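for the recovery benchmark. tokens below, seq after
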């Protein structure tokens, strides 16, 4: 089956060019006049020394337009998030309108194959989720999607990354929690790469350090951003403004807050180390104002993240987007339509690194094994839509139409044989049989078929992608690492 990834989106534009300019103007006014609250003294000093105005008593940093433009321009327009496959076949080249889709993080709970219930996630779930991701062709990267609740906090970072690195070759991104954890993850990845220099040349890990909406770089996440930037590890600086709660209720107002927030993170990374691969990031969504709950499966989330794609493209920055989650508690029709709609909107807008696109239920609280398989199918269809319709002399097929003539057929033509496996998306999960065939096979619904596929993959032979001797070295060198 043809695997579609890295295709160019951008067909869908919820914002006009004039809209983008208006939002940009408002963003730069916010940065210059309202400012960003920067809680870490080291970060404030970096901005001050570069020419920003700092109101020390309130920790407010105001960034003039010229400085903002200069710092944003220092960030690379394209970042290669590498895998560990052959000849770069698992790399994600993010930037422009290239589209890649994968998992997200970090859920506290998991839903086992075939179950509607949830339980606390463990380190073993990271292993099993990584194995699934490695086997599912349409999931392009593994963003570590669950939190190992049984581990002490100071060992979470290395064990999340270490287990993921051991069980998938695809690019691994993860949130990080402590400065020491960031250092140990980078040290571990350097051993696996062969040296710190080789890791910087081909970074197969990347990190997420959040900006706290609205308009705040907090002390803890700023420390994590600085540590990643010092080591030239790709770092995503996403913000999560919620319409009506931590941003204006209007989608345009939300995009202003979002863009100002994440650009502040990009600029901080450049102040630490110019040229750091820093990625514009959005986890923007809406609030259910009846209950003040965060909503992950709303169509407005798709619109916001599609609009944010246009803003990232305007600033020539690679873009980490959100789509594909559901507020449903189980793998039902709601889970399917919410995931499909937001994934489609953001992918068609040219979102580069679309995380949360596979496996999430219940307001991002639960990672579902079955939904990983179901979303692998949805992503395959979405990427076929991103690919669009190829129009050339061969695909127009005038000579073939002329040869077949009125009343002819194309079933046995060489043209059909040549294009049949690439022109259409061939499902590996959906049922396409007649009713009697479906009934004879057990009348299984999508969730049942997905659970069976999960079990088939996980019951298969486990493959480690870190050699035994190197695993021994890592356990000796990295404190708290529980690598199998």
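predicted aa per position
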């Amino acid at each position: 089956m043809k695997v579609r990834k890295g295709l160019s989106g951008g067909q869908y534009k919820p914002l006009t060019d004039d809209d983008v300019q208006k939002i940009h103007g408002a963003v730069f006014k916010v940065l210059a006049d309202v400012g960003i609250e920067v809680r870490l003294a080291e970060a404030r000093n970096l901005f001050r020394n570069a020419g920003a105005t700092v109101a020390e008593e309130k920790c407010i940093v105001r960034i003039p337009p010229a400085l903002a433009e200069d710092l944003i321009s220092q960030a690379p327009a394209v970042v290669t998030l590498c895998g560990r496959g052959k000849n770069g076949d698992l790399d994600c080249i993010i930037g422009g309108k290239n589209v890649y889709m994968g998992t997200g993080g970090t859920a506290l709970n998991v839903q086992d194959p075939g179950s509607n219930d949830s339980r606390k996630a463990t380190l073993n779930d990271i292993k099993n989720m990584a194995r699934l991701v490695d086997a599912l062709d349409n999931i392009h990267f593994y963003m570590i999607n669950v939190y190992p609740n049984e581990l002490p906090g100071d060992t979470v970072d290395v064990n999340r990354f270490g287990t993921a690195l051991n069980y998938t070759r695809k690019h691994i991104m993860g949130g990080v929690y402590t400065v020491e954890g960031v250092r140990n993850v980078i040290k571990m990845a350097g051993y696996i790469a062969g040296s710190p220099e080789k890791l910087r040349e081909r970074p197969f890990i990347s990190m997420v350090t959040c900006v706290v909406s609205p308009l705040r770089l907090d002390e803890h996440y700023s420390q994590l951003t600085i540590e990643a930037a010092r080591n030239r590890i790709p770092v995503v600086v996403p913000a999560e403004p919620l319409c009506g709660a931590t941003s204006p209720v209007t989608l345009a107002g939300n995009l202003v807050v979002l863009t100002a927030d994440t650009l502040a993170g990009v600029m901080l990374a450049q102040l630490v180390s110019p040229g750091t691969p820093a990625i514009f990031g959005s986890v923007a969504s809406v609030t259910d104002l009846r209950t003040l709950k965060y909503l992950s499966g709303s169509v407005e989330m798709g619109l916001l993240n599609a609009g944010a794609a246009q803003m990232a493209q305007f600033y020539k920055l690679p873009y980490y987007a959100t789509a594909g989650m559901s507020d449903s508690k189980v793998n039902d029709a709601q889970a399917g339509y919410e995931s499909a709609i937001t994934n489609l909107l953001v992918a068609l807008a040219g979102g580069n690194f679309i995380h949360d696109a596979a496996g999430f239920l219940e307001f991002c609280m639960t990672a579902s094994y079955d939904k990983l398989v179901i979303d692998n199918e949805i992503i395959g269809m979405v990427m076929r839509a991103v690919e669009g319709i190829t129009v050339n002399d061969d695909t127009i097929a005038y000579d073939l139409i002329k040869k077949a003539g009125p009343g002819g057929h194309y079933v046995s033509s060489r043209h059909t044989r040549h294009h049949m496996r690439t022109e259409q998306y061939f499902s590996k999960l959906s049922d396409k049989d007649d009713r009697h065939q479906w009934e004879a096979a057990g009348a299984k619904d999508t969730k049942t078929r997905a659970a069976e596929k999960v079990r088939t993959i996980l019951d298969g032979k486990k493959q480690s992608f870190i050699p035994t001797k190197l695993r021994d070295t890592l356990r000796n060198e990295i404190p708290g690492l529980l690598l199998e």
